[in-house]
Fold these 4 entries.
Entry 1:
Amino acid sequence: MLERAAIALDRIAGGRPARSFILYGLRGTGKTVLLGQIRQDAERRGLQAVRLEAPEGRSLPALLAPSLRAMLLKLDRMESAKAGAQKALRALASFAKLKLSFHDIEVTIDAEPEKGLADSGDLELDLTELFTTIGEAARERGTAVVLAVDELQYVKEAELAALISALHAVAQAQLPMAMVAAGLPQLLGRMGRAKSYAERLFEYVQVGALDPGAARNALVIPIEREGEEIEKAAVDAIVHQTQGYPYFLQEWGKHAWDLAFCSPITLQDVANATVTAVAELDSSFFRVRYDRLTPAEKRYMRAMAELGPGPHRSGDIAELLGKQVTQLAPIRNSLIKKGMLHSPAHGDTAFTVPMFDSFMKRIMPERG
């Protein structure tokens, strides 16, 4: 997958057609790590990678402006840079100045706005002009700009439509600018609703749990590199407990390593590690997400947990709560918006955090 991304970005840098990448999957599958690796690989090959994370409640212009400013200033300082980088900075200044409806832009652009460039007030038109100008500056420099965006599912749909439209425009013009992004499963539906041609513009790569063989290698190889060993039964126990999810494999492996007195790591070491790993996950990874929920949302997710890991039919959840599906729709929609749930199929609801059903039973032993 890393090799495919590298080839695509190199093609885009060379002015040849290629699709940008969207990584999607549940929490704890390694999307952010892969995104970071793609970004670092691009930088090592001389491309200009812009790292972005889309938090809830932040506008797209506010997200883009400071990072693009830093990248363009770097591009402007390059020895072979010409007028393109300065023009792009002026376009960014116009873009930031005119986006008065987004009250969270707090950045000073070191250039005078250029009248008539990215300043119409229409986000889709202005973002397209801005990206086109940036792409032209990158081509002038003989490089490419890569937007590496994490948590893309939090970008509002109208702003997501503007982003897709701008990327479509630079792709049609064969300008060296692309995006590699990561997000939760609901991102696919959001992008399709935002722009119908999004499915042709991007290559969508699902990032999920490792298969048993890969999960075993993820545990065994680092241990053997240190000249130590782990019993096969211990490896099997960790793979079973973690269901192959990379983040959980890391946690169980770390605790098993820390608790083992000697080599090889035993099944008993893994049993001890399970207690400490679950306790740490409950106090951090799971808890920070649980604390964002309203009481009604907690009851909804506790009902889901009662039904098992999922996915579950919305009607089954409503029946367990003694409500109509329509009554619970606002709660379900809120949980999807917060990134806690997703809908893998019409009428189905599933957790975006693996093993969250078990956590909900631990944190709320009584469903009521």
Note: Residues 292-363 form a domain with the Arc Repressor Mutant, subunit A fold (CATH 1.10.10.10).
Entry 2:
Amino acid sequence: MHDSRPAPPAEGGPLLSVEDLRVALPGPGGAAVEVVRGVSFRVPEGGFHALVGESGCGKSVTAAALTRLPPASGPGARIGGRAILRGRDLLAMPPRALRAARGAGGVAYVFQDPMTALDPVLSVGTQMREAIPRGTPRAERERAVRGLLAEVGLPDPDRLLGAYPCELSGGMAQRVCIAMAMAQRPALLVADEPTTALDVLMQRRALDLLRDLCRARGAAVLLITHNLALVSEYASTMSVLYAGRVVEDGPVADVLSRPAHPYTAALLRAVPRLEGTSVEDLAVIPGRVPPPREWSRGGCVFAPRCGRARAECRSSDPALRPVSPGRAVACGVR
């Protein structure tokens, strides 16, 4: 069977290096609650890196914090750490420089639901033209808009540019969002659950499109998802998040074939199998992700849900440490 997953990149400096990223948001009563707790990972130049984990583990807040988007920039929010993009720390930039970094040669986003990402009262053409860099002459801007629609496989640009989001299918709306994100040729495209509102066939098409566009333009992708099937097919490296921390990191082929953390192994067991005959055959992870206010109470946060937990797991929270070249895990149970 042909493996369409990108090969791991050659040795060299990463495009994006996230180091000890921390985000605290106001909690009940106004007290700060840390929802991203020392997250570190690297996105290789031209690579496809995935952030994986259940809902509520901090994936989307991590992505928003890279360029200080809400909720990471809301009232009372605090951000620490570094996010180095081609030698420049995004988190240390003044507001004007950071706005410029959200786009041309910097970071662009494709969000979860295209129907909510697009403004329902503005036409597709109006929104796409706004995505073209300021100062672009009108004729050149129109050519760029039509060229982007052609790149994402959307025909009949005159009709589409006059349409409103409610007139588009989910797949068409997602392609428009991808086109808008690529309009300023970013170095890094953050795709935050980009297939959530799509059926299985359209999920594949959307990821194929992202991969092909980024390969053609030399951009890297940070894919945020809980879908391990998509990760195995499209990503080359991955980080597994649980309770606001990276618990395992490494090449996709290694992590998925030999998971070192019990949480990663549990996620893999929960993937539906063709040999299953009913819903009772599905493996589940007992319990739920605890709320962020419980994440720093001591001990491994996953211990209450872990079948391999020992007494020491409930008193100490292991740091992420290397276990082999390119692999790291935060677990003391081996």
Note: The longest strand covers residues 14-26.
Entry 3:
Amino acid sequence: MLDDVKNSDIDKEKVLLVGLYGLSSAKFQAEEHLEELAMLTDTAGGITVGRVLQQRNRPDVSSYVGKGKLQELKGQMKALDAKTIIFDDDLSPTQIRNVEKVTESKVLDRSALILDIFASRAQTSAAKTQVELAQLQYLLPRLTRYWTHLSRQSGGIGTKGPGETQIETDRRIIGQRIGVLKSKLEKLDRQRTTQRKSRDSMVRVSLVGYTNAGKSTLMNALTNSGVFAENRLFATLDSTVRRHQLNNHEILLSDTVGFIRKLPHHLVESFKSTLDEVREADLLLHVVDGSSPMVHEYIEVVDETLKELKATKQDRILIFNKVDRMNDEQHEMLRQEYPDAHYISAVRGIGLSELEAAIEDRIESQYLAIDVEIPLHAYKAVAFIHEHAHVDSEKYNENNVLISCKIDQKDFKQLSKMLDTIEYSIETR
């Protein structure tokens, strides 16, 4: 399959994409996966000029596609004037070396491509540190291959960040650099933890979802925050947190990096401190591109990534975005399968007021209605209640104050600890 190349794409790096289908995946799924790989290639600054799908039950150990197909790839590369081959799976150093030797082309696997995109998109010190650490951890077992590979590279996809500086390094130096980066991330993590503690009194809501599902667009629609949003994969790398006032509650809404199929393990590990916003959230808003034919796979990928992050205990609201792009059949099928989900268009503002009401309902479900009677001298506890609870009534007598209020369960636990050494009474309503 030869892709159309526009005049504006002439100077871009020409790329041939390669994938497999067989026992574990159907052909249509493999085609969708290559479509996603083409979007990743575009994000990285390349142009897809051809796609190759091979039917195999398992990848060839030495060359991924086998000797015969490898010769075909060599011919296609010359015919398309392509310089780079990108595979939809991770390759072993041996596979990369053998494919390079036969095709005389630059060879990247899916992880290398994603890491390259992250390197080009990282803006803050934390993101740059996290990406560099992931790249070096990816590079370490492939060091021998990269020495010869990079000596003839002059730039392009797969060469951003620390990769292009590693020609004259060895494992010891890389190991030392990894240690420095981990130490730096630990320091940044402590700073983030301090920042989060200062926000403990507020309900934290985090947007999660497959990359390009529209999380940043939804963030902007709800908070008018001007968060960068783009119709490309991985438009957002750094966490963004904004205050947002609902009818009865003020929340902290966070947006962070999107998930993707086969997200490199080293990248997940490096970004865990950034993703603490997800792990420590009180409520997760799982945003899905409802117009995509891969909607079920997107949901599964996000669920699996949340398990890897150990973020499965939080309450969750499922949101199908881009309802304006769905046809009637898609819409009806999803509503039957996910009757409790919310259907919105962040771009057009469809369904946002209903979503905000649902968020408030979930928050309210975590509240307890209590009557608490405490001594007047326990002024700190009284102040805590006024700061963290919704006070319905307050009555004073000679020695005590009786407060009727609604309070979040986590704040109720903290209030109970404050009153441990004081005689008091609490009744739930």
Note: The first helix runs from residue 27 to 43.
Entry 4:
Amino acid sequence: MQLEKGRKTVILMLDGFGIDYFRASDMPVLKKMAQDGFFWEGKAVFPTLTNANNISIVCGSFPQTHGVTTNCYLDPITGKPAFLEDPGFLKSPTLFEMAARQGIRSALVTSKSKTIRILGGSVDAGLSAQDADLETIRDFGGPPDIYSIEVNEWIMRSGMKILRNRPDIDILYIHTTDYPMHMWAPEDERSLDHLSRLDRLIGEMADKYPEAAFLVTADHGMYPKKECLDLEKILRAVGFPIRAAISPVADRLVKHHGGHGGVSYIYLHDRSRRDEILYFLSGLRGVDNALPSEDAAICYRLDRDRIGDIVVGADPETVFGTIESERKDLHDGYRNHGSRFEQSVPLIAWNARLGETDSIQYNLDLTRALFFE
């Protein structure tokens, strides 16, 4: 692991910050970092959801190695969907663990409490805006509502306060919320205001710590959607025996996406009929592609044992989820992610010694190049 004690690294994982947001935004600080440092229009890991990408970045590897492919999985004991919110699924060490073994201290500031539960075991300071405890409120102030622009400012300022009060912290990982991106398109004035505010805070941080390395990327982009399909209802209605159709994007924060997403993991009772189901799904309106799990694992570098029997990707205007009917029109302005169409994200490194950059194609390659090679 390439780490120097006393040299700070700030990793900004701006949730939902697709390449179109970067291009449309008035973010002079970040764009100067991209101009003067390393920049590439790269890719997020598929499925384009937070857990799979956050953990890929923190582990410097794909889900085929670290094992996390979803926010939601089919519990083998209950046979019902359950949320992935603990570190038991991780098969790889995180950069926080590796740093701790070398005496390097780290901090994690995030919008979601599950991120602390999954990744916070080895950090020296961990804060979550969701369900903030009394100690966090005392030291950093009460966080704004999780469904707001202001919560991302709180996250950034809290990260800066940690660096100020804990000069021994050398790695700071900041994970914002994608609520503003779910709400507003890149050119919307409210989106532009949100990103302008973040840019000013990035500038403050860079001015305060001019020797620090900065890595900036995202877990996915965002795309407007028109229709939701309930694949479980659709498949059962035509007589196919399935156990469940899981939306990997689903988590506890459903206000902005309703638990829907652009990918589905299909679990079967009878795998002998899988080819029939694949053929049916390939012709279904709203489906981009449907792959046997072993093929999807190779194609997307996923853990074969954690993606069901079939992986279904939605077309650019469709999401999958549990609804009251087989199909449902979505309201104007509905935006979501999960499919391959939200993979384009900025990869930015400033003041960072990445070495050979030709192999940097994915968000996880930034941390892999800096810490794991």
Note: The longest helix spans residues 189-208.
